[in-house]
Amino acid sequence: FLWWKIIFHFIKFKMRQFVLFFPLLALVVISLAGTATVEAATGLNPPVKLVWHYYKVTNTCDDAETYIRHQVEMFYRNDSSIAPKLLRLLYSDCMVNGCDASVLLQGPNSERTAPQNRGLGGFVIIDKIKKVLETRCPGVVSCADILNLATRDAVHMAGAPSYPVFTGRRDGGVLNADAVDLPSPSISVEESLAYFKSKGLDVLDMTTLLGAHSMGKTHCSHIVNRLYNFKNTGKPDPTMNTTLVSELRTRCPPRTKKGQTDPLVYLNPDSGSSNRFSNSYYSRVLSHNAVLGVDQQLIYNDDSLEITQEFDASFEDFRKSFALAMSRMGSINVLTGKAGEIRRDCRVTNANYGA
């Protein structure tokens, strides 16, 4: 693996300083009993302080990560789709109000009821893990940390690197559905980059995290405009491979009737039901075979195009960058110390527990 390629991108795109990646790039010199400051990109204020193996270091739940991994392994053996489901769930949590597990809260107008979150999955897995941990270490392990750790373990089983997850997050309160600002999957690359930058992330993070679309599914309603009436032209998106258009039209009929079904299609037909984490997503983008419009848009920005070409050429480059990007996303606006709470049930705040 050629680290100079990643360093080159850090410099060329004026990204974060090397110290921002220290927790991941210099793990060999970090004491397992110490702490590490995990800072997001410039603009995230204040920097957050999370701890490597927090529950072991604080002697509050020494085997918390082992319990979580064991539960994920059991779920994954029965259903590999938990990897993309947990990835999307974590993204939907962190990118809205920071990684505070607010997306896990239930309610008639909660985050998970927002239109952008339709079809979210993985809740049952997190709830099960929380129940296990509550029997062993009551009131100690946050739902936010469980979601981050479980996602890491699931995507590792699917082929991603087992990257370090710094812990010590606490859980946030209820957010209304109208607070969810997740963008449409049909936005331009400029709009996508602006959104990621608003969260303190950059073009490398964006291009890397969109690579999570190497597995999972999406609803036809998210792509039907590309298939039949792109920008009200009455024609398909001219950037989409015509063979892919024909294939997807057989699964996604025009949406002409109220209440008609909304089938699911694979984001990456190359991986399909195997749900394997790979870099084939990037080759599909380069050959105009991306399913979502936002993915295809990566070739229309010089920086994201160059990164896409690099990741297509080197799976290892993508895997290493994925580890960095997931760590940075996982540190967005986290609650630590005495902020927030440690929920007893991930579905409700402690004030409503047992109500």
In short:
Belongs to the peroxidase family. Classical plant (class III) peroxidase subfamily. Belongs to the peroxidase family. Ascorbate peroxidase subfamily. Its EC number is 1.11.1.7. This protein is mainly alpha-helical and 355 residues long.
Structure, explained:
There is one protein chain. The protein is mainly α. The protein is 41% helix and 3% strand. It has helices at 3-12, 22-25, 54-57, 64-78, 82-97, 123-136, 143-157, 189-198, 203-209, 224-228, 242-249, 280-286, 293-296, 302-313, 315-329, and strands spanning 36-38, 48-50, 217-219, 264-266. It has a two-stranded antiparallel sheet. The relative contact order is 0.17. The model is unreliable at 1-47 (pLDDT under 50). Keywords: Calcium, Disulfide bond, Heme, Hydrogen peroxide, Iron, Metal-binding, Oxidoreductase, Peroxidase, Secreted, Signal. GO terms for molecular function: heme binding; lactoperoxidase activity; metal ion binding. Heme b binds at residue 213. Removal of H(2)O(2), oxidation of toxic reductants, biosynthesis and degradation of lignin, suberization, auxin catabolism, response to environmental stresses such as wounding, pathogen attack and oxidative stress. Ca(2+) 2 binds at residue 270.
